[in-house]
Amino acid sequence: MKIMKTMMKIALTLTILLGITSCEVFDVDVESTMSGTLEIVVPDGTLKSTSDVFPFNSFTTINPLDDPDVSEYADKIVSVGVDGIIAVVESVSDGGVMFLSGSSLTISNENHTSTYTLTDDWSIEAGTTLNISDLDGFYDDVSEILLEMETFTVTMTGNSSKSGVDVTIRIDMETVITGNLF
What we know:
single chain; alpha+beta; Jelly Rolls; 4-stranded antiparallel β-sheet; 10 strands
């Protein structure tokens, strides 16, 4: 009888401990800004375009584990939330540049691809920002990509109103990464 009581106490203790370790009580949130820089070159148009539209394409890669706070909890991450994505024009080699509506920002890895498409023209001047909104679950898709904690690609493609320009754009993804300490 004494052995049975001891076994019941051990079973109850194990049940309680297992329940506690899976609780959100042991979750830790880490705020992180994952950033990448796009060096966009819109080639000089040698022929006059009848539509005055000049294509561009640029990409960069980002490794979430380059952030020491993220890499510290990499094997314990249970979720990644995206709070915002902002594109910041850091420099432009000429004035009067517009990235035309229909241009897109794509974030992808081997397993997922998510694309945000500009619905309006974007005036490209140093210091201007574009807040990428959470249209059609864009942030949820990006969260899935980030949760894999693997290097991913940020690509911007589209059309410019001007040729022969160089543009540098920084993409900042504001995230909250949740890890469980147990």
